[in-house]
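Appendix B. One record, verbatim.
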Amino acid sequence: MRAAGLPKEKQTMNKTFDFMQQFLKDTSRAGSADTALLRKEPQPPLEVPPCPDYPNVIRLPNPEMLEDREVGFLQMIELRETVRQYSDAPLTLEELSFLLWCTQGVKAILPEGRTMRTVPSARAAHAFETFLLVNNVKELEPGLYRFLALGHALQEIAAGGTVLDEYVDCFLPKNMIKKSGVTFIWTADFQRMAYSCGKRAVRYIYIDAGHVCQNLYLAAQQKHIGVCAIGAFDDGKLNEKLNLDGRGSFTVYCATAGKAY
């Protein structure tokens, strides 16, 4: 029980602490034993199927076609930094393909109906879908695209010079969105993770987001591309814009990328 007369800041901290403790309890291993997998329910698809309303699908270049550059691991770790300002030089389609491969590339489909990708994921669930706000990429019209990881392709959802303007207000760092080459938006298909992880899926999704974004940072560093992770966005607005219900599918994390000065 909280003591009466506590300062407002202390009361707020206590409420946050209580919320955290309840979350840890609800998502403990003991509370995650009941899963759809154990109930032998049908497994969710490996990715959200392409929407037939958007027939324009763009095959991406093979990421191996991009010239490799040898960089020592320790050097890459030391040089990794957050870049918030970008030049007017566009990203190439090959570079975008490389970044997508490094963050969600599918290396193999396993017999049990899971995927091995370029990033780790709890139970190999890989709950993420990748949306892209393209602003300055060669051979791509500005607009909103979705990465189809299984086919290493992009599905054009909305194209045109005004599309970016419709999304800028969803983010706190508005100018960074406008000046970047592309903004990555990672959304989660909750059922894909919860199928084998139960309530603990909530934890795993946010852990996996860190794996994905760190791969983006390291891959971009290797190609002299700047990246800035973004957690400051309006969840409700962005989910609505992307036609996500905010429950079974929702935005988790974002990042801008572009050519640094």
